[in-house]
Amino acid sequence: MPNEAAAARDAEGVEVARDYYDSEEADRFYSAIWGGEDIHVGLYEDTDNIAEASRRTVARMAGKLGEISGRHVLDLGAGYGGAARVLAREHGARVTCLNLSTIENDRNRELTREAGLGERIDIVDGSFDDMPFDEAAFDIAWSQDAILHAPDRLAVLDEVTRVLRPGGDFVFTDPMQADGIEDSAALQPIYDRIHLPDLASFSFYEDALKARGFEKTEVEKLTEQLGRHYGRVRAELAANADKHDLAPDFVERMLAGLEHWVDGAQAGRLAWGIMHYRKRS
Asked: Domain 2-279 sits in which CATH superfamily?
C-alpha cells in the first residue's frame, strides 16, 4: 500500500509539471522572458543578457565532454531544444530530446526543422523517470535544471544508469538546496512552488551516482549564478510583462516565486553548478 501511495504521488507530481509547462501563459513567459530557446540558468560573468548567458552554460557544459561528434546524446527535460541544436550543429552530435511538455516539444520540432537539423535530432514526448529507450542506448546523458521537478529523483538516476552505456558521460545542472541545511523551513515557499517536499543537493547526487556505479569527473560549483539568473529574469519580467500580454495574477505569482529563489541563493540556502559524472566501464 505505501508503494501504491508513493506511485500515485509521483504520477501526480509529473502531471502537475506537465500541466504547468503546457499552459499558454507559462509558454509565453519562458519563450519571451526567460531566454527564448533556452530555459535554464545562465552564466553572467560579463553579460546581463539572459539568452546569451544561457547559451554560455550550454557551451561550458559541452566543453567538459571533449570530442562528441557522432556520439548519441540524451537531453533530459529538453525544453525548447536550444542545447540539442547547439550539440548537433556545432559539435556534430546526434541528440534525442525527452520532454513531457507537448507545447515545448512542438516548438522544439518547429525550431529544429527551421534549423535544418531534423535528421540529427529526435524529439520524444515522455517523462525521464520512465524512459522509452533500450539499455545502453546513449553515449551521453545531458540535463539542464530539470531533475528538480521529478517527484522521485532516484528513479530518474536509475533510468539514466540504465540507458547510458558503460563509460558514458552524465553532465547536468540542477537548482538544489545547500548541503548541511538542517532547518529547511525557509525553503518551504520554493518547495511549494515546485509542488515537492525538497530539493536535491551536491552530496545527494554524489552519493546516489556513486551507488549506481558512476565516478565524479568534475563538479563546478556556481551558486552565485543561480541568484543572478533569477534576479535577471525577475527584472525582465517586471519590465516587460505588459508587452507579452501576461496576466497580472500570473506576473504577481511569478515575481514572488522568483524572489524566493534570489533570496535563497543570497542567503546560502541554495546551490547550483555543473556536474559531470562518468559511468564505470
From this structure: Vaccinia Virus protein VP39 (3.40.50.150)
Using an 8 Å Cβ cutoff, are 64 and 274 in contact? yes
Task: Judge whether 25 and 238 are in contact, CB under 8 Å.
Answer: no
Q: Evaluate whether 232 touches 44 at the Cβ level (below 8 Å).
A: yes
Please state, in angstroms and rounded to a whole number, the distance separating the CA atoms of residues 125 and 68.
24
Q: State the pLDDT at residue 16.
A: 59
Cβ atoms 118, 89 nearer than 8 A: no
Amino acid in the structure at residue 98: L
Q: Could you tell me if 178 and 279 are in contact, meaning their C-beta atoms sit under 8 angstroms apart? A: no
Sites in the chain below the pLDDT cut of 70: 1-22
Q: What per-residue confidence (pLDDT) applies to 22? A: 65
Alpha-carbon gap, residue 33 to 50, rounded angstroms:
8
Sequence ranges of the domains in the chain? 2-279
Do the bridges between strand 214-221 and strand 273-279 make them parallel or antiparallel, or are there none, so unpaired?
Answer: antiparallel
